[in-house]
Design brief:
The protein is of the alpha+beta class. Helix content is 25%, strand content 17%.
Length: 423
C-alpha cells in the first residue's frame, strides 16, 4: 500500500486509488535533481496549485494539491513518454512515398492534435523543407542569422499572431544574462528579447495570460527548447482545462536545437564569474556553437572560448536523459548546427510551420542547408547519451504515460542506482 507523508499525519483517511500527488513529482524528479525546468507541471495544473520558487526556479506547491496526477503524467522526466510527441520521420529513401500526416483534428482551426508516437528513425524527423537562412536586416543582439526574431516580427506585422512566448533578460541587476519567460505583445518587445540564453526559465509557466494586452481568443507563437515544446504538445493533445495557462492559445511552436541546458547559478556565476573572473556586466554575447562555449565582451574581446565539456558540471542533470536535440515535435526547429557562421538552420516540420516561414521569407536571405549530416551526427550522439542515461532503448510506441510506481521501478532498475523516495 502506498504511504504518503501528508496523509500519515492526518486522520487515517485511506488513499483514493490511482492518484498521484505533487509530492511524488517532487520526490522522483525535483529532489532527485532531474527537473529540466520546462514549466509543464505548472501549466497543466487545473487548480493553479503550482508555482515557481523565485529562489530555486523550480516548481513548488503554492496551495492545496488535489491529487489529479496531471503534473506527474505530463512531466517529460516523470510520467510522459515524450517520444510519443514525435511524428514519424519523413521517408527519404522512397521518392514515391508520401509524407506521413502529423496532425489529426476535426478542422483546420482546432489547435489540438493526437499523440501517436513513432520510431524516431534516421535523419531529421518529419520535415517539409530545410534551409539555411538569415535576416536581411538584423536586429541588434540576435543569435546566428536572427531568423526567429525576423519570423516573429513578420507574423506580428501580418496580423497572424497576437503575441509570442519568448525569453528576455532579467530586470534584476544581480542576475545579468539570466533568462526569464515573458509573453510579448509588440514588435518592440520582440526585438528587445532577441538573442539566446542558456538557462531554462520555466517557460510554460508564463502561459498564464491574465492581465496581458491580448484579445479574448489570442494567437500565440511559443519559442522554447525541445522539452518545452514536447510538454506543450502533450498538453494540447488532451481536452481538459489547464487552469489559467492558455496552452490552447499557442498556434505555432518553434524549437531551439538543444543538447543540454544549464543552471543559471552554475554556469553564469560559478563557472564564469567565480572560476574564470568574467565580468558579466561587460558581456555582449554568450554562444554555444560547434562544441564550444564562447563569451564575448562589448569591446569585441573574447572572454571565454572553451569546449562545452568544461561546463558539464553546470548542466541540468535531467538533460542527459533527453534524446530530442532536433525538436521533433515542433512546427519549426532552428539552430546553428548545419549552417555556416552567421546563418540559422531552419527545419520546417508542419504545414503551419511552412505557412509561417513563407510569411517571413521576404525579409530573409534563404539558401540550401550547408551540412545536414552534422545535424544527424549530433542527433545520434544525443540519442546515445540518452540511452546510456536511461539504460533502455527509446520506445515511442510504448505507453503514453507511466505511473509513478512504474517509473520509480524502471528508473531504479535501469540506472542500477538506488532511488531514494522521500515522503
Amino acid at each position: 500500500m502506498k504511504r504518503y507523508r501528508l496523509r500519515e499525519s492526518m486522520n487515517g483517511i485511506d488513499e483514493p486509488p490511482r492518484k498521484t500527488w505533487f509530492w511524488e513529482l517532487e520526490a522522483g524528479v525535483i529532489e532527485a535533481d532531474r527537473c529540466i525546468e520546462c514549466g509543464t507541471c505548472v501549466a497543466v495544473c487545473p487548480s493553479n496549485s503550482l508555482g515557481v520558487n523565485p529562489d530555486t526556479n523550480l516548481p513548488e506547491l503554492v496551495k492545496m494539491c488535489t491529487g489529479c496526477s496531471l503534473c506527474w503524467d505530463f512531466c517529460p522526466r516523470g510520467g510522459l513518454r515524450y517520444e510519443t510527441t514525435w511524428p514519424p520521420s519523413t521517408p527519404h529513401d522512397d521518392p514515391e512515398a508520401q509524407p506521413v500526416e502529423l496532425i489529426t483534428k476535426p478542422d483546420a482551426a482546432d489547435p489540438y492534435f493526437t499523440l501517436t508516437g513513432a520510431a524516431p528513425g534516421e535523419g531529421l524527423g518529419r520535415v517539409e523543407a530545410t534551409y539555411a537562412a538569415r535576416a536581411s536586416r538584423r536586429t541588434e543582439g540576435v543569435q546566428d542569422g536572427g531568423v526567429v526574431t525576423a519570423l516573429l516580427v513578420a507574423l506580428f506585422e501580418a496580423g497572424q499572431i497576437d503575441g509570442a512566448l519568448v525569453a528576455k533578460p532579467s530586470a534584476d541587476p544581480n542576475e545579468p544574462w539570466k533568462a526569464v519567460p515573458t509573453v510579448v505583445t509588440t514588435v518592440a518587445e520582440i526585438r528587445a528579447a532577441a538573442g539566446s540564453f542558456y538557462n531554462q526559465s520555466m517557460a510554460l509557466a508564463a502561459l498564464d495570460l491574465t492581465g496581458k494586452n491580448l484579445p479574448a481568443n489570442p494567437r500565440i507563437a511559443a519559442v522554447g527548447t525541445p522539452c518545452e515544446v514536447a510538454g506543450l504538445r502533450a498538453m494540447q493533445s488532451k481536452r481538459w482545462p489547464t487552469g489559467a495557462h492558455r496552452v490552447d492559445a499557442v498556434i505555432l511552436s518553434i524549437a531551439l536545437l538543444c543538447t543540454k541546458s544549464f543552471s543559471y547559478e552554475g554556469l553564469m556565476h560559478e563557472e564564469l564569474k567565480r572560476r574564470r573572473g568574467i565580468d558579466l556586466n561587460r558581456v555582449s554575447k554568450v554562444d554555444v556553437t560547434r562544441g564550444r562555449l564562447i563569451v564575448e565582451y562589448r569591446d569585441g574581446a573574447i572572454a571565454v572560448d572553451e569546449s562545452i565539456k568544461a561546463f558539464h558540471g553546470a548542466a541540468l542533470k535531467g538533460c542527459d536523459e533527453c534524446a530530442d536535440f532536433l525538436g521533433r515535435s515542433a512546427d519549426i526547429s532552428v539552430g546553428s548546427v548545419g549552417s555556416n557562421d552567421g546563418w540559422t538552420t531552419v527545419l520546417v516540420r508542419t504545414e503551419r510551420g511552412r505557412q509561417s516561414f513563407e510569411a517571413a521569407r521576404r525579409g530573409l536571405d534563404v539558401r540550401d542547408l550547408d551540412d545536414a549530416a552534422a545535424l544527424v551526427r549530433l542527433d545520434e550522439l544525443d540519442q546515445k547519451i540518452a540511452r546510456r542515461a536511461l539504460g533502455r532503448d527509446l520506445d515511442p510506441m510504448g505507453a503514453t504515460f507511466m505511473t509513478y510506481d512504474e517509473h520509480v521501478a524502471n528508473y531504479a532498475d535501469t540506472t542500477r542506482q538506488p532511488v531514494v523516495i522521500r515522503r
